[in-house]
Amino acid sequence: MDFFICCPFPYYFYFLASMSVKDVLQSLVDDGMVDTERIGTSNYFWAYPSKALHARKTKLECLRTEIEELKMKIKRNDKSLESANEGKEESHERDKTLAELSRKENESKELKIKLDRLRECDPEVLKEVQQKTKVAKESANRWTDNIFSVKSWCKRKFAIEESAINKNFQIPEDLDYLD
User: What is the pLDDT of residues 9-18, one digit of tens each?
Assistant: First the structure.
């Protein structure tokens, strides 16, 4: 591949290894500082000073418009903050109301704690706990029945003693149904 470098500005390329020039040019092309065009079997690279100037002017204009937008946003936020702070000026009446609010919040927390303690004696809660206990007991007995069924099947299928099954599967010897 042939490389032709056309630069109207006074940059001089001294003797460099072919791969170095390729890498440098590719880096410049990737950064948008140098343009490239493939014509036939040759690659042509060029850069005009006006392009860099135009790019900087465009970037500067974008930054200026962004600054103006941010200034407008700051003004809107300042106005919003002022309107939000309206009516919240420091006064004796406001301090008194805030103190009362704090006192009422503390009282509410204390009453909730007391209600939670008394909830343990609530008949409805006790009924619910009894119902859950009944369901848990039935579930435990069902699983115990399942364990006995599996043990019975293993004894018949593999001719294993019950104590060996209990030992291998860590089943307590005194496993029984709940009353």
Answer: 444 444 444 5
The ranges assigned to domains in the chain are 2-47, 123-168
Per the CB < 8 A criterion, the answer to whether 134 and 179 are in contact is no
Count of Cβ atoms closer than 10 Å to residue 22 Cβ: 14
pTM: predicted TM-score of the whole model, two decimal places: 0.37
Contact 45, 29 (CB under 8 A): yes
State the Cα–Cα distance between residues 97 and 85, nearest whole angstrom. Answer: 17
Distant-in-sequence, close-in-space partners of 176: CB < 8 Å, separation ≥ 6: 144
The per-residue pLDDT for range 39-78, each reduced to its tens digit, is 989 888 888 888 888 888 999 999 999 999 999 999 999 9
CA angle 72–75–80, rounded 5-degree value: 125
Task: Name the residue with tokens 């848990």.
Answer: 136
The residues pairing with 36 across neighbouring beta strands, listed in sequence order, are: 45
